[in-house]
């Protein structure tokens, strides 16, 4: 008889999703109903920006105007609900593997690939057998619940980053890094400065291929070399 793995789901629960999909559109609809009233008040303040837009909204007299704005608010709330769910990390784990889904992309890691797991502030971090980061994503939920779930499934949960003492702040032309790595750090600094998260993540992956692990604190970059098990 085969042993069947027990799965644990973390992140935004089914109950939370129902609440989000219900509450956001309702709040959007309520806000939409009152927008014409608010617009009339704003039009009376000539110093307030976007006067043209508010004059257009305030011109929607009667129930039909409020109805239109209510429908738009409902739809807008639904869009915000979709974004909120899509950008939340969904975790499904067993004693054999862990599945992590965010932005409609799912990544799967077998347990033997993962050497350690910990929280860095609110970010969930998975390390491989060489200390390289397999994943770093912001995770919802209580830290205690995350820890208990991974420990129960047999993963090596750490209370803190086992390599925290090895990080050094990156500055231009840092000694110990190759010219190529320094160039990537410089490009990444610019991406962070313009808040281009996608480009910053791509460059972080390129640095990882060179054996460099990167951790951010606000707009500052810190680095360490990976290559050994934690």
From TrEMBL:
<feature type="domain" description="Cysteinyl-tRNA ligase anticodon binding">
    <location>
        <begin position="174"/>
        <end position="224"/>
    </location>
</feature>
<feature type="transmembrane region" description="Helical">
    <location>
        <begin position="20"/>
        <end position="43"/>
    </location>
</feature>
<feature type="transmembrane region" description="Helical">
    <location>
        <begin position="63"/>
        <end position="85"/>
    </location>
</feature>
<feature type="domain" description="YqeB PH">
    <location>
        <begin position="8"/>
        <end position="158"/>
    </location>
</feature>
<dbReference type="Pfam" id="PF23493">
    <property type="entry name" value="CysS_C"/>
</dbReference>
<dbReference type="Pfam" id="PF23494">
    <property type="entry name" value="bPH_10"/>
</dbReference>
<dbReference type="InterPro" id="IPR057798">
    <property type="entry name" value="PH_YqeB"/>
</dbReference>
<keyword id="KW-0812">Transmembrane</keyword>
<keyword id="KW-0472">Membrane</keyword>
<dbReference type="InterPro" id="IPR056411">
    <property type="entry name" value="CysS_C"/>
</dbReference>
<keyword id="KW-1133">Transmembrane helix</keyword>
<protein>
    <submittedName>
        <fullName>DUF308 domain-containing protein</fullName>
    </submittedName>
</protein>
